[in-house]
Write a structure and sequence with these properties.
single chain, alpha+beta, eight-stranded antiparallel barrel, 2 helices, 8 strands
Length: about 160
Amino acid sequence: MRSTIAFFAPLLAVLAASPLRADPVNWSATSNTAMAITGDIVVDDYTLTFANGKSLAIEPYEAGRVGDWSRSGKSVAGDVFTADSSANLKLLNGNKLCATPVTYVVIWSPGEGELGINVYSGSKAPTGTGGLCASYSIKLPSQALPLGPVHESQS
């Protein structure tokens, strides 16, 4: 039983942070690449919407595919999507997600509240960083923190 739980633990971690929910989720750009090209991203079941309002349609292809998505040599689970390659969107500053049309997107989680979005332009579904066109890092925005403790006035 423990080996089964250990086997599925990485997948459960990705699913916990996965954008595969009915409600759109806002994510903040954290990598220099994401800040310069995509800006903040809204992720929902079938769309990535970028800071300039343009959207990329995506379709689920394979959930929980294990690969070296981070280029670290460690395999982790990620959700693979096909992308509308006809879009080839111009994003911030006239940049594109990839120099060639995007065919696959992999969304994976390097840690709690963080996502990596890898884009590919090959004809075969990705299994890691081979054929990787670009990688973008995003995170859940921080919750607003109070300015300080609230004190009752003493009269």
